[in-house]
Hints:
The protein has helices at residues 3-8, 24-48, 54-60, 70-75, 94-132, 157-170, 189-194, 197-218, 235-241, 254-260, 262-282, 287-305, 314-317, 323-336, 339-347, 353-382, 408-411, 415-429, 440-464, 466-474; strands at residues 136-139, 152-155, 172-176, 181-185, 248-249, 252-253, 394-396, 402-404. Helices cover 60% and strands 6% of the residues. A two-stranded antiparallel ribbon has the order 1-2. A two-stranded antiparallel ribbon has the order 3-4. The protein has 20 helices and 8 strands. By secondary structure, the protein is mainly alpha-helical.
Amino acid sequence: MSSSSSSSSPSPSSSKKFEYEFGGPIGTSLNIVLLPIVVLLLAHWSRVGYVDVSVIRTVFLPDSIDTRPFWDRLIQSTVLCPSCQQHNNSDGDINHHNHNHNHNHNNNNYLLGQCTALVLGWLLFQVILERCLPCELVEGVPVLGNPNHRLAYRINGHLAFWISLFVSQFGYPYWHEESQSIQFTSFPLQDWLYQHLSEIALVTIGLTMVLSIYLYVDSFVGDKILAHGGNSGIPPYDFFMGRELNPRLWSFDWKVFCELRPGLIGWMLINIACLRQQYIQLGYVTGSMLMINLFQGIYVWDALYQERAILTTMDVTTDGFGFMLVFGDLAWVPFTYSLQARYLVNHDPHLSYLSLAAIFALYIVGYTIFRGANGQKDVFRRDPLDPQVAHLSFLQTKRGTKLLTSGWWGMARKINYTGDWIMGLTWCLVCGFGSIVPYYYAIYFAILLVHRSMRDDQMCQAKYGEDWQTYKQLVPYRFIPGIV
């Protein structure tokens, strides 16, 4: 055990029995392997419109006539690299086959190299915006409860959001022959973020693995503050959960940067690319496509507009920054949350105006709950005497903190999760009922929120003790008032 572990976080051997999450070392190891596969499968399924398992047989159980090496079958599959060129030896000319084989390999490598450059360029662009744009310097919550240790954060994500959109629409340079000058137009998003989505997802997954390895190794260097949940002493588990609580490169905070900027804004650009592709194919944009771009665009904008609110979330205050969050922020969010927009390009249900209006009304309900609850919580945390929340009742805990027992938070302990899930359900409903593929999000998000609420409950029980039991008696429902 390194000195940082002993000085900054209790070692598992010197404290009470370590409590594993996500299935412990075995479960987290499986997640590291399986989650990237799920991302690539979902990208494929959203393109074909159904749950296609034949690709697994093609790669792992090929026909006898398919003599390609395993790696060739994998890289040329419709899941891993749909745009990579297929090759075969149909004419029996071995020299011609070898020439084509090498040519295809070169093309494949060139395409993946372009995708890698695109992802790295996007990450660098977001880093430049975070470092150079005007910002509000905000202090986070006390690190591990130490009131004398707070980290400063640059809050300018909202401005970065708008500049990113502006550049994507008006920042692509090209040579104008008639005027003999450089002019600017919109980036050809559909040519890359739609046509090569799987390839971009593949290289992004690889980069998340590289970043996760760097963060894990770096957590052993110097006197680092470790996250208790990622300090088990078992490498695969700690790699997944994240050892270091707030890894930084000088003043650059890896965790808060990745939480909101590259993945969330990238998600919105993927949606715009899908909208453009649908327009190219149909000559118009459907109501469902417009609504998914509107709904999810508001979601992304809201997160960046409320950027400082993330500083009080469990991701920032409690969880380490390892593969779980790195992969989730940079790969899972942009490439699976955009699934509905990608599905709608080729499988739009062409819903009636009445159906779209009903879905829009449901979205308003979800957003009202989500934003109302989160906004009320954030105002109360900053200033309990603020006129917006001064009338609310609360439970004064022995720790000195206050737990709201009226308003939105008097209805249910996780009422914001309910609003969040309702919004997510509307994203699925705009895709109709022709396939279960678009409903992956509603299913996955329900599981995620239930699991997350259980984690929150355990942590609050450890944090507040008997006060938490009193609070649960005052606010007995978790998600839906009067029901559950």
